[in-house]
Structures are given as structure tokens and as C-alpha cells.
Sequence to fold (201 residues):
Amino acid sequence: MEEVQRYIAEYRDYFYLVTIVWTFLEGETFVLLAAAVAASGSIDPYKLAAAAWCGSYLGDQCWFFVGRKAGPFLLRKFPDWKHGIDMVHRWLERWDVLFILTFRFIYGIRNFSSAAMGLSELSIARFMILNFIGAGLWSATFVSAGYLFGHAIGRLLGQYALAIELSMLGIFAVAVAAILIVTRWRSRRARRLALLHTDRP
Fold:
């Protein structure tokens, strides 16, 4: 186990980079598990929180600009998105600051909320400031929760805790990669089938 800890310590700077990339895309489960590993002392929880903050902020800022620049085109291409975007706009009108600070915590809407807000009249500067604060709150919350979970597991399982936490993190990463691969394969297969039907006389 000491060898594993030394290995993690040697390459942990790459781990922070992975955290930035992962939280740019999503990240709750990954951050929780990574923070649990940090409880063993192998990873710096403050650097982990900073990396998660950075990735989350940049990811949602990027989607905001996608909505601002390409939102109308995306709505024409995916008209089914309009219902969700309208719902976000209603929440934004009703709760404004509170919604921007907390939308990351609402399961199922984070993925499109930033783009939906980009389609609203919300100013870029206002979103950038509140998004920065919200990303920090999100990062601090999930890293703290994962860190406390890691300590609890450590007290229960002792020297086996780190191995279990790393296994859970690895299984999660593999599962996400598998889902992405299968989703991409199905998308390509659907496009091929659509082309075949189109080419038929």
C-alpha cells in the first residue's frame, strides 16, 4: 500500500490536470471519489478543490458562450431542447442569482443550464462573476463531502480503505469511458442506417 501511495504522490500533478478536464465535462462522482482518496494524504485536497473549481468554471463558461453564439442554430437542429431551455429561463427570471449559484447542484439540468442562460438576456459579465462563485461553492461542497467520506471509510477499513477508494475511482472512470464509446457507436450506427434508408429508391 505504501508503494501505491508513493506512486500516486509522484504522479498526482497529472491527477489535478485530469480533474480539470473531467470537471470541465461533468464531475460530481469523480470529485467525491477523488476527495475520498485525498483523505489518505496521497492527494492535496486544496489543490484538488482548486482544480475542480477551475474545470467546473471553464466548462460552464464555455457552454454559456456556445448558447450565446450558436444557440439559435442548435434550437433549429434540436427543437426538443426548447422545453428544457424555457424551463431554465423561467427559473432564471424567478430566482436569478440563486439559480446561477446553485444550478450545478440540481441533478439533470446542469448539462444544458449554462447554454440555456447563454440564450437569455443575462449579461456576460454577470454570468462570469456568479458562475465563478458558484463553481467555488460546488467544488468546496463536493470535495469536503468526499474528504469526510474518505475519513469515515479509513476509520472503518484501515489500510484497505485507499485500495477500495482507488478501485471505485477506476471502475467509475472505466464505466464512463464505456458509456461514451457505446453512445458514440450507437450514434454512428443510427446515422449509417438513416443514410441507407435515404439511399433506397
User: Anything to note?
Assistant: The chain has one domain: 2-165. The mean pLDDT is 80.
